[in-house]
Structure formats: structure tokens, C-alpha cells
Amino acid sequence: MFGELAKISVILSGEKAGELFFEVGLEYAKYFAVDRADCFVLALLPQAAMDGVDIVSRVPVSERLLFQINTFLCGTLAEVYTQRKIKITAPIVREKLENAGAVGTGITCGVDSLYSIAEYSKTPFPSQDLTHLCLFNVGSHNIGLDAPKEMEEFRVDLAKRFCKKNGYEFLRINSNVHDFSPNYARYFTVLNAAAAMALPKLFSSYYSSSGCAVSEFHLTGTDLAHFEIFVLDCLSTEHLKFYSTGTEVSRFEKVKTLSNYAPSYEFLNVCNTHTKNCGVCVKCLRTLYALDILDVLDKYSSVFDVPAYRKRHSCFLAQCWVRKTFAKDIFCKKMWPSLRRKYGIPVWSIIRESIRFVRSRVKIYSFAYIRYRLQDAKH
Hints:
Layout: E1 5-12, E2 18-25, H1 38-51, E3 55-56, E4 61-62, H2 63-80, E5 88-89, E6 92-93, E7 102-106, H3 111-120, E8 132-137, H4 148-166, E9 169-175, H5 184-197, E10 203-209, H6 228-235, E11 241-245, H7 251-258, H8 263-267, H9 282-293, H10 306-311, H11 313-325, H12 330-343, H13 347-364, H14 367-377
Parallel strand pairs: 3-5, 4-6, 7-8, 7-10, 8-9, 10-11
Antiparallel strand pairs: 1-2, 2-9
Helix pairs in contact: 1-2, 1-5, 2-6, 3-7, 9-12, 11-12, 11-13
């Protein structure tokens, strides 16, 4: 599935000793930079900040990156993780790397991903047009699925088919970073940046598809994506600039854009619990609500079971109310008024779904954790 491989790696000592690597197809080996440890420092940074552990590298790190992390980012991470401020110590390398000028973004075929592709494939600025669509194995395949290998294979196949049909270069990077930084959902912004940084001689720009609008900007240790604009600015170097894309619009506006982007009708895939869209999980329903409001459900009949959604319509509408009320789901909160105006309020379904939701959460979470999440959602 991967062909001949090239690998760049470092040996780690300390509590989590072992080899940390990034792996690419052999044709991309020329884009490694073996004289600097930028990508490895980024890969270890968020978990080290969570643990309050300093990082010491014998391999040099780019001067601007080291300055920005130590001066601006480490203090912020210390605050959100309520830990001591860590420090990264390494020799400095000042030489600016020449690169191929490639422009990349991730391709999961989710709403955020496809929005970035739709918006930045052809811009008024040719040097900023997308050239490479990337799939990074840095932990995302392990979320919500008992068979991460199955999820990985599905996403690779989907991404390859999209790239082939729509004329993009496909780049896959494999890593064992999740063995050392296992909390992907809390700091995936940094891990994906680390993967892009593994090929510093390739990329001049990289678009990180944000799931959070700038209006939701706040500091939280639950998910660094809420202040991703700041984080990515700290990670940018002289030779590679990271951009947080999609922060200027809401998720609903992204779906609205995609409703006029034909490739999304065949490739939109938002489910984290199954390979294909299950149509009943939170992420699937958020998307179905938006498509419903826009009256474009039938355009997506090849990727969603639209008849099944319509059959249980009152139940799913009630779940939107429940999630915006009890789970403080910002997406449901924004879409509920439009759904209510269009369909009314399914009172009995709301009562039934409310009881079911409360029972399920009490079984899973402690009251202390529920209070913590509710407080965090208020910001």
C-alpha cells in the first residue's frame, strides 16, 4: 500500500525511550532535512508540555522556531495544561532551507478538509494554490474505532481516488508519534504540523483546516484547535508558513460552500466511528442538519443514507435540541433555530431523547468531569 519507503528518525532517551520516525514514499526522501530536528521537537512538544517535561535535542533546531516556541508557545501551553513552563534546549541553525514551493493541506474528505481544498485550489495568488493533498498517520486513525488499520486503509483509498479524479499530488506520511504523544484529539494541530515539517524542503505553505471559527477563539487544554491561529503562527519558520484555514466562516457556511462543490457529492466523509458515514453519530448528524437546512440532502445520497435520516427525522431533530441544550454543542446551537423554523418543535421526541442522553452520560462520565466540560463550553 505504501511502496518503497524512506525514513527519518531520532533516538529518544528518558521516560519514553525509543525511536521516533516519519516515513514517506522513496520519491520524497530528497525533501528531508537531516541537519535539523524541527519536526521531532514539534511531535514531542504538546505531550511534554502536558507532562511538564523539558526537551533537550543534540540535533539543531531552526532559530526562529526555537525562539517562537520558547518565547511564546511554551508559556501558553503551561497555562492551559496547568503545568510548569517547559523549555526546549537545542543548538541553533540559522540557514534558511530552500524548498520546492509546494502548498499542501490534509485530505480526510471531511467538511473542513474539503472546504480548504475547494477554497485554495485556485486563488488569485498562484504561488498559494494547492499542489499536494496529504494524509498524515499521526494518531487520527486511532480515534473512535476498534480497527484503526481498517480506518487508515479506507482513508488512504478515498484520498487517492479523490486526488486521481481531481488532479492533485497525493502525499502520505506515516509516523509512530502516537506512541510518544498519544493524546491526538487534544493537540492534533501540532502533530499534523510536525508531519508537514518532516519535509521542509518540499513545502513553502501548509493549510491547516480548522474546525473552529475565530469567534470561538479561547485558551483551553481540551483542544488546541480553539486557539490554532496563535499556535500555528508560533510554529511557522523562515521556510514554511502554516495557515489556519476556515476560521473566518462557520461550519454551516463551509457546508454551504461545499453544496456547490461537485466533488463533495461523491467524497464527503465526516464519520469518525465508521469508515463510511453512519448517519447517526454526532459528526454525521451535524452535517445532515446543515444539508437539510440548505435543501441539498439528495445531492449527497451516495455518501449518506438519506431515506434513513428522513425516516427518523423527528428523533434526529430532537437530538439537535438535546445536544445544544445539554452538551453545549456549538454547531447544534447555531443550527437549531433554522431547523425549528423549518419543521417546528418535536416535543415528545425531545422529552424522550433528553432522558436517554442524561442516562447515557451519567453511565459514562463522573459528575466532576461533566461539570468541567460544561464550564469549558461556556467560554
